[in-house]
Amino acid sequence: MTTTGVTTHKNFIGGKWVESVSGRTYQVYNPAHKTESVGGFQTSNADDALTAVAAAKDALNDWANTPAPARAGFLFRALEIMGRRADEIAQTITIEEGKPIGDARGEVRRAMNIIEYAAGEGRRMFGYTTPSELPNTVAYTIKRPLGVVGIITPWNFPIAIPTWKIAPALICGNALVFKPASSTPLSAIKLMEVFEEAGLPPGVLNLVTGPGGQVGNALVESPDVKGISFTGSTEIGTELYGNGAKLLKKVQAEMGGKNAVILLADADMDKALGGIVQGAFGSTGQRCTATSRVIVEESVYDEFVNDLIDRTSKLKVGDGIDPSVDVSPLCGQGQYDKVLEYIGVGAEEGANLAYGGHGLIEGDYGEGFYIEPTVFTDVSPDMRIAREEIFGPVLTVFKARDLEDAIRISNSVDFGLSSSVYTRDLTRAFEYINTVETGMVHVNAPTLGGEVHLPFGGLKASGVGQREQGTEAFDFFTETITVYIDHAAAARQQARFI
Q: What is the pLDDT of residue 2?
């Protein structure tokens, strides 16, 4: 392992870069060149988390009492700084997480859009007024910050997902403790540098790196933490949500997906193929909104499969830093092993391995965690590869009799994050919109992503708590206070009974 001359990075607590009380560090390696360290990072524990919580608590009152338009000024400065450092941050994402550099640049642009949108809300922190049923009474609502909030994020979008939590939380007046994924801490440090340079007051935003168990549990259990915003696995998110509820904390958890595209016979086939291949294999399938399933109307099934394999075979696999690469390495050894295991399960279950299915180990591929783009056909809804989240470059293809049958297959999984239908028939498109069980629905477009001013999140096992992004993001990070003001000159003649 190459570690000579590698920088060891610190936590950011109370406006200072500090070492963990554990005195221990760990290395993170480039998934395209797995012997090359990208840096050393603090192996933090519960004491570090609680120190960060204390710093956030100390900073909370002043930050909460800073007018929201003034808080927006810090975000606008962060936006300018991120724009200036955009290419550097994108390269950090690719070197640390592995995704193609084009996708990394898109992620940075997404983060900038989020900061811009959140900053604009500094002048739109609206409550509402309403007539009271009582005379000489004014009734209205205001928004108040939630308090100290824990931010827990995954590795697959190490800049965008933290930003879409942090920016709304800051504009609402909260103080934060940010726990990034242990495999992508350098991107988190770059994000902290942006806000530090923007002049954010000490303690308002704190970073603690290291394993999630001790740090995450400390955040959930601390009585000073009033809310948790989490993105990650359904298993961890469900446990965290339950534990938080017992302690009367506000929790949002964005979790897994098993996203399906329905392809009807009347669809624009070329448009659909482009969206499906992009959705399945872009970012190596390591997106919660990635296309994992394609459900094809039987009259065009064979034609679609032939065209899908032809287009998939033309994808270029390699180091994501090369702008010509379509499919880059998996994030790490654990993800590589998991995806290969699922490919083996699919073959054992009787699905047809129509393309790919192998780890790439020859030549330069041996330096990283590469797996071929993989297509299974003749998949049935009861198979594990049809129901469980794989989170890699694996696409499963199903045959359906008609739209009703396709929707039944789409809805047969525990997840409900994103879905798509390709059709020219407006009536069938609306039938799909009104019956598919996902929180985000696309027509003639991939299952991917979303826009920052619209809510992001899913149904069933894909999410619990309030949605992220859009106006819902600001609802989560605030409490609504209802105000009654009696301005009568004399005492009331009758008491009210409510």
A: 61
- Extents of the domains making up the chain: 11-255+462-482, 259-443
What pLDDT score was predicted for residue 267?
A: 98
Sort strands 129-131 and 137-145 into parallel, antiparallel or unpaired.
Answer: antiparallel
Which residue is catalytic, options 107, 254, 297, 372? Answer: 254
Q: Are strands 352-355 and 374-377 parallel, antiparallel or unpaired?
A: antiparallel
Determine which helix (DSSP H) or strand (DSSP E) holds 334, and give its type and residue range.
Answer: helix 333-349
How many CB atoms sit inside 10 A of residue 182's CB? 18
| Cβ atoms of residues 235 and 215 within 8 Å | no
Q: Which of 163, 153, 155 is nearest to 194 (CA)?
A: 163
Cβ 118 vs Cβ 82: under 8 Å: no
How far is the C-alpha of 465 from the C-alpha of 144, rounded, in Å?
19
- Facing residues of 42 across strands? 25
Choice among 97, 107, 288, 372 that is catalytic: 288
AA identity, residue 124? R
Report, as ranges of residue numbers, the positions in the chain whose pLDDT lies below 70.
1-4, 492-498
DSSP H helical segments within 36-159, as ranges? 46-64, 68-84, 86-97, 101-120
Let me know how long the chain is. 498
Amino acid at 385: I
What was the pLDDT predicted at 69?
97
Query: 273: closest CA among 241, 239, 309, 248?
Result: 309
CATH code 3.40.309.10 for 259-443: yes
Q: Comparing C-alpha atoms, which of 421, 383, 103, 469 is closest to residue 259?
A: 421
CA atoms within 13 A on the CB side of 40: 14
Angle of helix 160-171 relative to helix 68-84, nearest 10 degrees? 160
| Number of neighbours of residue 1 by Cβ within 10 angstroms | 10
- The class that CATH gives domain 11-255+462-482 is alpha beta
What is the model's pLDDT at position 145?
Answer: 98
- How far apart CA 111 and CA 456 sit, in angstroms, is 14
Active site residue 288: yes
**Residue among 152, 229, 162 at smallest CA distance from 192:** 162
End-to-end C-alpha distance for the chain, whole angstroms: 69
Tens of pLDDT, residues 298-312: 999 999 999 999 999
CB 127 within 8 A of CB 141: yes
Report the chain's C-alpha Rg in angstroms. Answer: 24
| Side chain identity, residue 335 | Q
Q: CA-CA distances (angstroms) from residue 418 to 5, 88, 108, 436, 451?
A: 43, 31, 22, 10, 13
CA distances from 411 to 50, 135, 286, 295, 417 (A): 42, 52, 22, 11, 11
Beta strands in 328-401 (DSSP E): 352-355, 359-360, 370-371, 374-377, 394-400
pLDDT the model gives residue 214: 87
Helix ranges (H only) for 85-224 are 86-97, 101-120, 160-171, 185-197, 212-221
172 labelled catalytic? no
